[in-house]
């Protein structure tokens, strides 16, 4: 036993026969058009723009595997009808979605999607409203993709999340004749309590780094002072030069009081007496 399963797209591409009654109606419509040619010409000729395509239905069936246009094309009155499809890229905003991340944090995320119609026949015959269906699918895809990410990945890997959403949307809308060109995450809104907690965490981290830097500076300064004391101990005249340099610095500031430091050896001599 063999089972044959066909997708709606394949069924659309195969143009069926109109049947005897259908051909009779088509021939009758053609004769009627020829007989009233000067008047029916306005009903037979149709024009579509460069960015549009026309999907023609003859007695409810698609007449050709390829959409008509751009330019002028011919239809039979009373038997033919057509649907215009815009091929230009369309962009829309994904409404803000309340999403629970993988690490149980509630965030509000919105985005923008760019798509276009790649197959006019499939977009008309396989889905009732390709534009509206793509918008709804984008919202559910955003929730499904971000539900598998934690907060850190959501804030740092927006480009990777956008590419993942684009691949999922493009694969899902392939049967509808829709090509998703680009997906972008616009904004991620965090709860006020979480913003305060993150701000406090960042402030504490900055204070910790500042204390470490200050401690490293004190350590380097103490090492420099130790090396300077060793140099002064080796040369007693260096202490006298440093003393004269200090007096010069004090005098340059126009101070009325000058402090003369006395060596401890002199003071200890008087204290013994």
TrEMBL record:
GO cellular component, one term: plasma membrane
Listed SUPFAM superfamilies: Band 7/SPFH domain
Residues annotated as transmembrane: 21-43
Primary site of residence: membrane
Pfam families, alphabetized: Band_7 (PF01145)
Localization per Swiss-Prot or TrEMBL: Membrane
Highest taxon, organism lineage: Eukaryota
Domain Band: 43-202
Keywords: Membrane, Transmembrane, Transmembrane helix
Sequence similarity: Belongs to the band 7/mec-2 family.
Protein name: Stomatin (EPB72)-like 3b
